[in-house]
Amino acid sequence: MPDTAEPVLDATGVAKRFGAVQALKNASLQVGRGQVVALMGANGAGKSTFVKILTGVLKPDAGHVRIKGRDSTVANPAGARKWGLVPVYQEPSLIPDLSVADNLRLGDTAMEPFRHWVSELGLPTLDPEAMIRSLPLASLRIVDLARALAIQPDVLLLDELTAALPTDLVERVLKVVRAQADAGRSVIYISHRFTEIAAICDRATVLRDGLTVGDLPIEPGIEERIVEMMLGGTVAAAVSEDRPVKPVTGIPRLRVKGLKTGTRLTDVSFDLYQGEVLGVVALEGQGQDELFDTLAGNRKASAGTVEVDGTARSFSHPADAISAGLTLVPGDRAHALFMSRSVRENIAVPLLARLRNWGAIRMGDEAAKVNAAIETLQIDTRAQGEVRRLSGGNQQKVTIARWIAKGVRTLLLFDPTRGIDIRTKRQIYALVRDLAGQGAAVLFYTSELAEIRLACDRAVVIFNGRVMDVIDAKDADEATLMRAAYGLTEKAPA
Predict the structure, then answer these.
(1) Which of 62, 297, 336, 417 could form a disulfide with 399 if both were Cys (CB 3.0 to 4.6 A apart)?
(2) pTM of the prediction?
(3) Cβ(69)–Cβ(32) below 8 Å
(4) What's 9-231's CATH class?
């Protein structure tokens, strides 16, 4: 490990308040040269706020930051860049109506080093003239990281970068991050994936309720200690992996046969039954985005059929899918929420659809449903004036809560635990199982293979746009899922 006698970054006593919410109370972080330091904590602990203060997006109410041995007053992201601090935030900071190349020019980023890094990170054929809005979320994360690496930062800040990436691209990212540290650069790494922390990090700084509660070296068996610090010693029990296999008989709630959309989704068939959670596993770009978009009415299928409760349906608009009982929780929370509106307003949106019938608005009934959904998901409403003030985990809960308030028949969850802490993940697993127990059907795409055994009854593995295997959750260990995801095995859909 490189000499860390003088930290390249030394932040102490940092505090920040947003109205009634004290996001940071007394946060500290030291990063040595050539170190990868994990910044960890449950959602709402203050991690993203801390990073935004370090990079000049937000101004702290108290505390000070020293960079390379000098007191720093970073007033904006451009100032942070001059100090050698470059972030890759939880959501891509790219302009969607411009091309990749145009975004690089706006950031004064040279094309040649960008091409080098985007290739190293697993996207060698990326077209610089491609419009940002046309790229999947995983590609946007790689573009954001490659752009940051091209600047050659002294300190790279990565906020849940791998949460939207499939396993193959995650491996590329981890290799590059570790190589940056070995070359003497420093990295602040925010992730809820302990396997990644163990693979590349030297130390972990743990936040809880806006306070730094621990700083410890990464060593074997440290995971439980970190969890205790994050949660204050109260760790919820994990969802059982030993559930009995559900019988799959009768008419499926959702039947997909020979579905084709665009060039990536070529031939997908599966059945999803009432009371079942069916997982979807796929590496980047194998057609999972197109599958969920088609079922949600955002894209039109070019071949194949979709049946809902035994009746063939065709969706030209999301309203068609919703009327058929199919509701989508997308992977990108920003696309699902009205960020400047309140928690309650966001949850109530589907309930207001009945206004078109010109009937009386039963405000008490709507309020009861919204309150019940908030209570069911344990949503933090202290900052309910604006959803954008919530942590990522609470924002995700809001996207799910709106459909619980309306009533769920078939829920399409696309990577619902992306960027969410372990406590909130477990809440969502339990919620999904509870919804299935009440008769809902859930299609659950996840980029984390371990989630299949925690939340699902079966898993459909997609490779090259078609189903390679259908696996019972009890048999869905990571090695089996990975082999199928790489196209190394094939079984006809059940």
Answers:
(1) 336
(2) 0.63
(3) no
(4) alpha beta
